[in-house]
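Extended Data, panel c. Modelled sequence:
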Amino acid sequence: MFLGKVIGKIWSTIKNPGLETQRLLLVQPISASGDKTGKVLICTDSTGAGAGETVYWVRGREASFPFSGREVPSDATIVGIVDEVNIGKRKTGGS
């Protein structure tokens, strides 16, 4: 799974029949600290994510798993909305 930030959406009046009811969102891959890490990509959305939200997404065969029973021709899918990222140092020792 990878982290990303939703930066927009795609509208298409003509598309593959397997994508007919799917939302297509633009996602900027990011690191845990929020830095951009790659090129913007188009993801199908299985969560209802919106612009500005941090999400995690999968690619490859796993991209079709959230749509069980449907043949969705997707190479990247948003599978979760991130509430918080904690990359702070762990405390050691007592309380």
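Strands lie at 2-10, 24-30, 41-45, 54-59, 76-81. This feature is highlighted in the accompanying rendering.
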